[in-house]
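WARN retry 2 of 3 for item q-0093 after timeout on previous attempt; input resubmitted unchanged.
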Amino acid sequence: MSFLSDAQKKLVDRLGTVASDIEARMMLGTIGLYIDDAQIGVVEEEAVYLRAGEDHRDAFEQQGATPYNAGGAVAQASYFRVPPAILNDDEALTTWVDHSRSVAA
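OK item q-0093 returned
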């Protein structure tokens, strides 16, 4: 995955500790995160954004997540930036990844 910066590789590796089947791919100028060919999120610069369904958007925002803003364009409300507190908590990160997987399937 030579297209990943060191910081991005660390983020993908971190996600891999809770979802061993996660894969990073180049996608239209950004990096998509996939499980079983379903896109669950994106990595942009040094941040991870995971997909949220309608029923979890409020919960994601209450935990400090902000919507994905593709290159400064209109915010994409289906992807939310994973806050550092979630990234550092295996149980919470697993919950977020599992939710994103279920929405993307």
